[in-house]
Design a protein that fits this description.
Radius of gyration: 21 Å
Strand order of the largest sheet: 3-2-4-1-5-6-7-8
Structural class: alpha/beta
Number of domains: 1
Bound molecules: guanosine-5'-diphosphate, magnesium ion
Strand content: 5-15%
Largest sheet: 8 strands, mixed
Number of strands: 8
Shape: elongated
CATH superfamily: P-loop containing nucleotide triphosphate hydrolases
Order of helices and strands: HHHHHEHEHEHEHEHEHEEH
CATH topology: Rossmann fold
Length: 298
């Protein structure tokens, strides 16, 4: 199944998805103020933030005028264009080698699963991969990562529960160098005793990477759960403050999705939108494609 159909399967499960709500406003009627008001309402209630919605509406007014569009149904492709433009602002560059991807995000968003999927993807591409189990807070976290590592037949660096995660990262960098690895994927904790402690821990990991592995291209990729909605934005803000994120990936777009927040995320943050998770197995990871994403939600 292609990107579109897999996303679409997920979106279908969402009764009041973005596209469904929009269906009722792109009619054969003439464009008037009511149309813009209704559209504004739908966008905001689809987890596209207020500011981004205002930007989209202004842009749509302008493009409709320029293209001499009179009927609302003819506005749909203009709206799609605007959304694709927003989502295309920060196209991910091809990954260099060696590179480090530190994966961050709150508990349960799919960090460990995404790393497992990436381990398989990169191995299939012929890359040498090392994993670092730097979530030493949850006892079962490194076991879970080991299962993925065994499946993909890649090296995983672990340590005992409770050990300083920065020490695990230090060891994993030595392992990556010794093996001439192309990619080092770092799994991190999503929850600690409190937020400030977690953020300090992530900063410390980052310092270790910068100091010990300056030759590696360093990505700090936050994971957001597609079902979270606008809340995802404040999560990204939090991690961004701590470590200056570079990339974002979105999981669970096969389920009930509120993917609309991705539009505000793309507008407000300088992040490359890299991958999309559409299931729980190793192959359920896709490269993000702005046009296909917009086609799936609209
Ligand atoms: N349906 C679906 N489930 C996912 C996806 N990614 C992760 N999960 C599930 O979400 C749950 C939490 O994932 P996990 O990787 O442990 O999250 P972490 O706490 O961020 O490491 C697990 O049950 C995963 O199987 C996805 O793209 N689609
Ligand atoms: Mg985990």
């Amino acid at each position: 199944m292609g990107f579109f159909s897999r996303l679409f399967e997920g979106m279908k499960k969402t009764k009041k998805s973005f596209g469904e709500k929009l269906k009722y406003i792109f009619t054969g009627n003439d464009i008037d103020e009511d149309f813009y008001e209704e559209l504004e309402f739908v966008l905001v209630s689809s987890d596209i933030g207020v500011e981004t919605t205002e930007y989209i509406i202004d842009e749509l007014r302008e493009r409709a005028k320029k293209n001499k569009v009179k009927k609302t149904e003819d506005c749909k492709h203009l709206l799609k264009e605007i959304l694709v433009d927003i989502l295309s602002q920060n196209k991910p560059e091809k990954l260099g080698s060696p590179c480090v991807i530190m994966v961050l995000g709150v508990n349960g968003v799919g960090k460990t699963t995404t790393i497992g999927k990436l381990a398989k993807k990169f191995t299939d591409e012929g890359k040498k991969v090392v994993l670092a189990a730097a979530d030493t807070f949850r006892a079962a976290a490194s076991d879970q990562l080991e299962v993925w590592a065994n499946r993909a037949k890649v090296k995983v660096v672990t340590n005992e529960h409770g050990v300083d995660p920065a020490a695990v990262v230090y060891d994993s960098i030595q392992a990556a160098k010794a093996r001439n690895a192309d990619v080092l994927l770092i799994d991190t904790a999503g929850r600690l005793h409190n937020k400030a402690v977690l953020m300090e821990e992530l900063k410390k990991i980052s310092r270790v990477v910068n100091k010990e592995y300056p030759e590696a291209e360093y990505h700090k990729m936050v994971i957001v759960d597609g079902a979270t909605g606008q809340n995802a934005i404040s999560q990204v803000e939090l991690f961004n403050e701590a470590v200056e994120l570079t990339d974002v990936s979105i999981t669970k777009l096969d389920g009930t999705s509120k993917g609309g927040f991705l539009i505000s995320l793309a507008k407000d943050f300088d992040l490359a939108i890299r991958y999309v998770g559409v299931g729980e197995t190793a192959d359920d990871l896709l490269d993000f494609d702005p046009k296909e994403f917009v086609d799936a939600i609209l």
